[in-house]
Amino acid sequence: MNLAPFRTPLAMSDAGIWALQFNALPRTVDGLAKVLQGLLIHEHMPDFYGVTLSDRQRGEPHVRGAREILERIAVHDPRPLSKARPPGERFAGCCRHYTLMLVTLLRSRGIAARARCGFGAYFVNDMFIDHWVTEYFDDAQLRWVLVDAQIDARQREKFGIDFDTLDVPRDKFLVAGDAWKLCRDGKANPQAFGVLDMFGLWFIASNVIRDVAALNNREMLPWDVWGGMTQVDAEVDVALIDRLARLTHEPDRHVDELCAVYGDPRIAVPPTVFNAVLNRPEAVSTGPDSP
Fold first, then answer.
1. Listed residue (191, 238, 4, 214) closest to 115, CA to CA
2. Which of 76, 80, 198, 274 makes a 20 to 30 Å CA pair with 268?
3. Per-block average pLDDT, block size 10, for the chain (291 residues)?
4. Cβ contacts of 197 within 8 Å, gap of 6 or more
5. What DSSP state is assigned to residue 21?
6. How many CB atoms lie within 10 A of CB 141?
7. What pLDDT is recorded for position 97?
8. What is the pLDDT of residue 81?
9. How far apart are CA 89 and CA 56, in angstroms?
10. Pairing between strand 193-195 and 128-138?
11. Close Cβ partners of 35 (under 8 Å, ≥ 6 residues apart)
């Protein structure tokens, strides 16, 4: 197993000069997750903490790179990252921001980590909600572990979560390709997968493409749209998504193939993507290591 591609901060996960602050942070996954919970707030959950997002915060979910996230945190509050900010003063992001930042912190310590795009089964009963988590390699246990750094004590209570979010069971979070296969095999209803009013095979297929991009160090926003993504089930390239689902189920067995398939323009992140929330095309800078 070649873990080298996931041990070094690259592109989106490159914190640049801000990484100098990481030496003072905890060494454990649990400790790093708690640090992030004191720096970030989910854009859709400010009411959990009794706060309202400011105009500044409402624009923050569209920030893509770790370097830019850390810069915004520091500009607003220059204290060390170990100092938890009050909920109303935190950087506002989504699950993907918690995921990317934990990937960034773990890779800065040489720990193999990667972002996974898929669906969480622990937010709405009988539904699989669009979600991202971090996957890191535990050298002692010789296995990949799923971590949801977003879930703090308040969210655990609100969502009634009764499992260890530092080791999320694989049936509680489905990587997008596994969700696709379940639906293709008739074992799950595609209309149970999505978010807000967007559900179906097309949504799952788009997340499969996002997951492949993330495995190639392009951890995009959940609402970034490009290439082979569509909002119509009938327009999904089923054969392509079938293949990607197989590759992403065991990515370590298909590292070279995942790298090669990323050259497909239907999958590769282009210089400009469409931000579906802001309804506009946006230039993408994935960091200094981008091609």
1. 214
2. 198
3. 89 96 95 98 98 96 97 96 97 98 97 98 98 97 97 98 98 98 98 97 98 97 98 97 98 94 97 98 70 38
4. none
5. G
6. 9
7. 98
8. 97
9. 10
10. parallel
11. 25, 26, 81, 82, 84, 105
117: three-class secondary structure by DSSP:
strand
CB neighbours of 48 closer than 8 A, spacing ≥ 6? Answer: 42, 154, 155, 158
Per DSSP, 71 falls in state: H
Listed in sequence order, the DSSP H helices in the chain are: 29-37, 55-59, 66-76, 95-108, 153-159, 176-184, 201-215, 238-249, 255-261
- The dihedral over CA atoms of 283, 285, 286, 289, expressed in degrees to the nearest 10, equals 140
Q: Using an 8 Å Cβ cutoff, are 218 and 286 in contact?
A: yes
Q: Could you tell me if 177 and 246 are in contact, meaning their C-beta atoms sit under 8 angstroms apart? A: yes
Cβ–Cβ under 8 Å, residues 206 and 225: yes
Q: How far is CA 78 from the centre of its chain?
A: 26
What tokens appear for 167 in the block? 């080791």
What is the structure's pLDDT at 4? 87
CA distance 167 to 144: 9
8 A C-beta contact, residue 148 and residue 168: yes
What does the pLDDT read at residue 93?
Answer: 98
Say which residues have a Cβ less than 8 Å from residue 126's Cβ, sequence separation at least 6.
192
Q: Rounded to an integer, what distance in angstroms lies between the CA atom of residue 288 and that of residue 291? A: 8
